[in-house]
Design goal:
It is globular and about 65 Å long. It has a five-stranded antiparallel sheet with strand order 5-2-4-3-6, sandwiched between helices. The chain has a domain of about 170 residues: Replication Protein E1, Chain: A, CATH 3.40.1310. The protein is built from five helices and ten strands; from the N terminus they run E-H-E-H-E-E-H-E-H-E-H-E-E-E-E.
Length: about 270
């Protein structure tokens, strides 16, 4: 057999449903964080929200988290968030959420509002400053996407109903496909299985399993004063609704003269 290479070797990733969910979670988290950094609005503080389902059945949580964030966006326009699925030791589902720039507690009792808007089980809200709190939560979420030791039960996605989403966020300002091309990542090459001959008193064949070999790391460092070209693909902002007579003829709605008609598209 050949001597082992000095490069790092890793086993071929599993193609199970749980492994695919974990990979999508990690990619989605990196794209969301890059979109946040390129966004014009700074992150001043965050709220970490935990939403737990009272019922142990997965089907009971279908659409619950999406409906909760729909209510949040209707109440506070421009809400930005990222949440991901976790499992308790008992198998009960709960979501951990990062809420950027939540409303000030002096204007609204956010703890009571979240508990009432969720209405499907227990909730928890914790506040922290924007920089340190966000860095801690991002590190936790990234390590969570990789840990498979003492708390491996939190990632047993193979047992989760396919109706439940692994993660969700607000609509990104930059398309995810563009963000995926600008993120930092490790580069690997696939090495297939091979056979070799080793002499230990007699010749015999030994099979080397397939593996991934790390060949480099792709960074996304920008020099001082430079800007990322991904920002050129930012989605245009939707302005306020316009009156019917201000719209182009093809977009005007039929209606009585003098009646204001608007065309408002909901958040996708």
């Amino acid at each position: 057999m050949r001597e082992p290479s000095a490069r790092e070797r890793y086993p071929v990733p599993s193609r199970s449903k749980g492994a695919n969910r974990r990979r999508r979670l990690k990619l989605g988290l990196h794209c969301w964080e890059l979109d946040r950094r390129l966004c014009a609005e700074p992150t001043r503080r965050i709220a970490t929200v935990t939403l737990t389902l009272a019922s142990g059945a997965d089907d009971a949580g279908y659409g619950r988290v999406r409906e909760f964030w729909r209510r949040v966006r209707q109440r506070w326009l421009g809400t930005r968030y990222f949440c991901w699925l976790e499992l308790q030791r008992s198998g009960r589902v709960h979501y951990t959420c990062i809420w950027l720039n939540p409303p000030n507690v002096r204007r609204v009792n956010l703890l009571a509002w979240v508990d009432h808007a969720w209405g499907a089980g227990r909730t928890q809200v914790r506040f922290s400053d924007g920089r340190r709190g966000l860095e801690y939560q991002l590190r936790y979420a990234e390590k969570y996407a990789e840990k498979m030791k003492a708390k491996a039960y939190q990632q047993r996605y193979d047992l989760v109903s396919p109706k439940l989403r692994t993660f969700m966020s607000q609509r990104l300002e930059i398309p995810p496909k563009v963000l995926a091309q600008h993120r930092e990542r490790d580069l690997y090459e696939f090495r297939g299985a091979a056979y070799g001959v080793q002499e230990l008193g007699g010749g015999y064949d030994e099979r080397a399993e397939a593996y991934l070999e790390k060949v480099g790391h792709e960074t996304h460092d920008l020099p001082w004063g430079a800007r990322c070209s991904a920002a050129d693909h930012r989605r245009p902002k939707r302005g306020p609704p316009r009156a019917r007579w201000d719209l182009p003829p093809a977009a005007r709605r039929p209606g009585r003269r003098g009646v204001l008609s608007t065309d408002i598209k909901g958040d996708r």
